[in-house]
Amino acid sequence: MDSVRVGLLGLGTVGGGTVNVLTRNAEEITRRVGCAIKVTHASAKDLSRERICDISAIELTTDSFAIVNNDEIDVVVELIGGDTLAKDLVIAAINNGKHVVTANKALIALHGTEIFALAQEKGVMVLFEAAVAGGIPIIKAIREGLSANKIEWLAGIINGTGNFILTEMRDKGRDFADVLAEAQALGYAEADPTFDIEGIDAGHKLTILASIAFGIPLQFERLYHEGITEISQEDVQYAEELGYRIKHLGIARKTPAGIELRVHPALIPEKRLLANVDGVLNAVVVQGDAVGPSLYYGPGAGAEPTASAVVADLIDVVRNINCEPQHLIPHLSFQSSSLSQEPILAIDSIVVPYYLRITVADNLGVLADVTNILSSQGINIEALIQKEPRKAGTAVDVIIITSKALESKLDHSIAEIENLDTVIGNVNRIRLETLG
């Protein structure tokens, strides 16, 4: 085989980066795989748009189905995003006997089970390293490098937009809305930032990581996700005073009762490496029974970092293009017939410490009422700070760090605390993760 012909679906930022990496490193890649990998066809919505790559040798079309139905193309790279048209295109490509590389986390998280089953039936590969954490080879690390381990838990900053916002709030004392507007202006956040700031994007990625780590089916619908919109500047400052930093984490943990699968803000001890991952960078910590903790850190997005993962998948496809399907690494690391049916735990059944910010009237006996309510649910207080009132006789913030507690019991306590006449507004609760 002299060359493998690639058809790109989407010629935007990542598509252009993929062409550039393949072109610039063509000699090195050929030395690695034994033949050339060439982008011969690409589809794009607007053929007149200026590109970041040289497209002179690429046949362009606005019809994506012309790519997946083209007999001359060996591998289809899907970079258009979403889970509707992208799904139809990937299914068509597989039915046509083409291997697929995708950077589409929503597609895999929501439809991966169907796609992988069809790929197995048709004897083709579907690779998706770029779907999680951009240029960080986290999928390969878990699926191959850590395959000797029982994975106990993993936790990651897997959305750069949320991490950028929280970093700016901490370092520059800015408010959430102000930083979000800048993130949109810089292109870190979409005009509708819901997927980023409400944890949906991170949830898609965590669904994939948990499936590979624990050998469970893809189950995004059972994942708990919570955004960062309620994190205030005060919370960021108080966390720092207590020796913690607030990060938007994806956490998957195996317990005797089942699998925790959750995305939410969390306090992390400032000494942890993950607490010091700032800006738009991503990082994932994986705890294996043999290796212990290992950290994977780097850019979670961008033209060439993501293209690095896309091209690595293309190299894997070419290296294995003549392998019998039964000799390929399973899509989700475990044999499809051996996936575990362990339950995904509801959020109210997790047990962790908590940070509580309670705004109360500056009256005698308020703290006693709050502590009595927590005590009645068996929740101990590890640390308590009462801030100075802004003016004499006005409301004050009370900050509490609890011991580990069952979330359903904390929910009950919070409801009682919010009903106290001396408590103003809602209690702000943030889970705490020691990552130990």
Describe this entry's structure for a reader.
- The chain has 436 residues and is an alpha/beta fold.
- Strand 11 and strand 12 form a beta hairpin.
- The relative contact order is 0.13.
- The strands form 3 sheets. Strands 7, 8, 9, 10, 11, 12, 14, 15, 16 and 18 form a 10-stranded mixed beta sheet that branches. It has a 6-stranded parallel beta sheet with strand order 3-2-1-4-5-6, sandwiched between helices. The protein has a two-stranded antiparallel sheet with strand order 13-17.
- The model has no long low-confidence stretch (mean pLDDT 95).
- The protein contains 14 helices and 18 strands.
- It has 3 domains: 169 residues, Rossmann fold, CATH 3.40.50.720; 162 residues, Dihydrodipicolinate Reductase, domain 2; 84 residues, Alpha-Beta Plaits (2-Layer Sandwich).
